[in-house]
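Course assignment 3, question 2. Fill in each field.
Student: A.L.
Task: Predict the tertiary structure for the chain below.
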Amino acid sequence: MDNSRRRIIKGFVGAALLGLTAKKGHSFAPSPVFEDSPINIILPRDYTPPSDKTIDGYSHKLTRAALDFLETNFSQNHLPFWKKPFGEIELEKRVQNIVYWIQLAVEENRKIYPVDPSWILAQIMHESYFHEFCVSRALAMGICQFIQPTAREYNMICAGDLPEHASNLYKMSEYIVKLDVYYELRRAKRKLIRANKKLEKLELHDIMQRIESNDPEVHEDAVAWNAYLQQKNEYDERIREARDQYREYVVANIEGRDIFNEHDLRFLVGFDERVTYKKPIFAMVKMLARSLRARNGNIIAAAAGYNAGLSTTKAAGLYKPFGKIPSYDETVTYISRVLINHYEIARRI
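Answer field:
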């Protein structure tokens, strides 16, 4: 391990981490004893990311480490997002290609901030388990799970962006407008909530207590609250419908295609670049490099920013330079799992 890595602040290691990962039905290899932890929480500005130039065969070792971790835990199970047994998925060529693009992206963005390639791989693993056609309920797509607004910032073509996407060359093209409907309805719902902060905070037990205490204004407030809840429910139903219809459009056009088939790849590049490798990986690495620069190398805050937005990781006082993990259940779970993925990959290299 080089001197720059020895200066890195370490944490979340050893038996405590293994205890967090132990699940019934899953077997984990015994943890070796480390002189230094393979987990690096704070990456210094002069950190040297490992590569094939600095470590002989690093890309191969990184690929094998990820595959070994997955095989150890999923060889007898379905891999998340894939809906098929582990043995039926051609993971090796996927991970090999992903590692290749990670290495190039880390090198290109090194001037912004150095990024640990194994952390990127661990984060992609949690995002999609390397399933290029993964589409989430929030309409995030691809191995790096970009939503359309963020993907557009990084010059990625998304399904529905080009005029020809509405033509009969594409299946279910009548649903192309549903993405705009989806985002418009979400904005309208947020506006409704902001305009009714008092009603948003009300709970049924509050209404019942006021009825018991003969509050003269309770009837009027209860009627307003009920109307507000009905409006929210209507928005939720319309948002779900628009989301599901747009998702049907996307899935209908990518289902059954093979990213390693030249003809299919040409189609996918012209339809939605989020399901390819190069642009999403370069965008992800650049986002994390920028976040690391903003949070003084705190990879935990940077990864939390990828999940919840960098502004949510702002901290105050002593901790302001390094940021924080926002108190969202989803983000806390996200960081916990990426951290474990990174540990399990790094210790196998």
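Instructor remarks: The longest helix spans residues 218-254. Residues 38 and 347 are 6 Å apart (CA to CA).
Grade: pending
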